[in-house]
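Recall from the previous lesson that a structure prediction takes nothing but the amino acid sequence as input. Here we apply that procedure to EBNA-1 nuclear protein from Kushneria phyllosphaerae. The sequence below is the only information supplied.
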Amino acid sequence: MTSQPYRPADIVSPYLLFLGDIEDSVSAKMARAVVIWRPEKAVGQLRMTEQTASVGIEDLSIEEAVARGARTLVIGVANSGGKLPAHWRDVICQAIEHGMDVASGMHQRLDAIEGVAQLAREHGVTLHDIRHSHPPLEVGTGEPRSGKRILTIGTDCSLGKMFSSLALQRGLENAGLKARFRATGQCGVLVAGEGVAIDAVIADFISGAVEWLSPAGDNAQWDIIEGQGSLFHPAYAGVSLGLLHGAQPDYIVMCHELGRPHMRHLPNRPMPDMAECIDANLSAARVTNRDVKLAGFSVNTSQVDEETARRELSSLSQQFGVPATDPIRFGIEPLVAAFTTGAV
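The prediction returns the following tokens.
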């Protein structure tokens, strides 16, 4: 295929990050991704209530943000189902009326909201639907291809696969290796400036989309492919499986959150057994790469104290014979060292 990855370079910054009235901080991951990885692009956040989750930057109204040069209202939320709440429409329209573009990573298209497309035309602004901006794709082939690939996987969804991928890419580059982050989610695409939101791709083309996103390449370069969902989450396992096949990973990095009581949005479904989860992912990945290996663990330990975190990470490392770290709390270096020293 000759098409290029979707590049949201025309999503003009600075951004005003719109958080609606969500109170679940995990759902604010679109805004948080910008604040962590592209902080220079955000002038502030817009929250509808004081109880709304915050990403820790200044609260601004649309008028205040425009006065500071904001060019695009970014919907900073990723919710289950990807539908924009109807009562957010007025804020979106107000931004358009003030001359702002609007960017969304939701499944629901902005132009599907009553009156929004017409209003955008009247004010000469652009609507960006990041999840729906990918080129024509083909089915996967599973043919072996050159290059080195690492895929982040997870015991559940929304527990740090994008963060881990970006941290690993940065860590490898800092260690003098060539590394490229391959975004497969709307947050990653916005941060990286290119990629494919894989959960908006027709199922037949998921593996092909990942083959296209991470094509045959230089054996001296590492492609860090952002994982999605979990093989053990009944809502999102189909996407996870297609990614495993299309990525043709040489290594997988397991992402996990200590203390998570159950699968996200499924209070009656416990978290999977770690050994079973690793075995299932390795088995699925062997469909396209018989030599795939577990490289290590990237674990969110924010819900436990430091002593508990270190003990649990050490236990994982001893049980599976690979490094385990919390990239925020303790740094990504143990995982980077596994690749730079040839330990994996």
